[in-house]
Specification:
This protein is mainly beta. The two termini are 20 Å apart.
């Protein structure tokens, strides 16, 4: 089984982890910093960044970070700096786009960035080659297996698609009389879960390179397709799937479910998940 991520960095509500094909390195974003760590959680390289994206093999890392004019008082927001890096941290190119980024995707040739204003800009070699304006804020982006771009949009009143992936899966958050999630996949249709997104806006979810494994978390329960995989003592805040369908995840520290404010608590649990010989997901949690 490819080693799953055991990352102390991923305890914040907006942490993100992405696996690589080799399984001995993971990309991360946490607290305004993005980069790569090894299988033991040691930082290999890092740069400023809030959003990250990669392709299914992890052959690059796209990073988006807020850009400011530091000479102004107070500093003026200029837009979003979008950068593309090699796995070892070498910068390929960087450009600033005039939007407040809320979603990011890459196929390691082009990088797509979506904004709160509904705009999606596609960059290649540091230049914008395409721009499309949607009617609602963009919350999720992913390059599909056919090379087209999946876009998740919406709003807090009508509902919004907070997760899309290359295999056609999506997670939409809705709120009528009570918050709930609609998880959709070409493999099992649509399933509704009560509870909404907690404690993070973006649902923890991951899909394997071959699209056979689609795992996601609804609060403290991780699902493999429509089957509950494991219920954990704390809300799941990050989830990643490696190429063979192995999963790595991290629970929130005690107290973070209320919104992630303050410093991370000492108590944190990591979990490691894999597939047995029959292809059924198994789980083992470690304190």
């Amino acid at each position: 089984m490819i080693p799953a991520l055991l990352l102390a960095l991923a305890v914040a509500a907006h942490a993100a982890v992405l696996p690589t094909e080799a399984g001995d390195m993971f990309y991360f974003s946490f607290g305004g910093v993005a980069g790569a760590v090894d299988a033991f959680g040691r930082v290999l390289w890092s740069v400023p960044g809030q959003l990250i994206a990669s392709d299914p093999m992890g052959s690059c890392l796209a990073v988006a970070s807020a850009a400011y004019n530091q000479s102004a008082s107070p500093p003026a927001f200029l837009g979003t700096a979008v950068s593309l890096y090699t796995p070892d941290g070498r910068l390929l190119w960087s450009a600033v786009v005039k939007l407040n980024a809320t979603a990011l995707a890459t196929d390691c040739v082009s990088v797509a960035v979506g904004g709160q204003n509904g705009e999606v800009a596609v960059l290649k070699d540091g230049a914008v080659v395409k721009a499309v304006n949607y009617t609602a804020p963009v919350y999720a982006l992913a390059y599909r297996t056919d090379g087209t771009l999946a876009v998740g949009t919406g709003g807090p009143l009508t509902g919004f698609t907070a997760y899309v992936d290359r295999c056609g899966d999506s997670i939409t958050a809705l709120k009528t009389d009570a918050p709930y999630l609609i998880v959709s996949s070409p493999r099992f249709g649509s399933v509704k879960y009560m509870g909404g997104l907690a404690p993070q806006l973006r649902p923890p979810a991951g899909v394997s390179e071959d699209c056979r494994t689609f795992a996601y978390a609804v609060y403290d329960v991780i699902y493999n397709g429509t089957s509950p995989l494991v219920k954990l003592p704390e809300p799941v805040i990050s989830l990643a799937a490696s190429g063979d369908g192995s999963l790595g995840g991290t629970e929130a520290a005690e107290g973070e479910a209320a919104g992630g404010a303050g410093t991370p608590r000492e108590r944190r649990r990591d979990a490691e998940y894999g597939t047995d010989a029959t292809g059924i997901l198994t789980a083992e949690a470690a304190s």
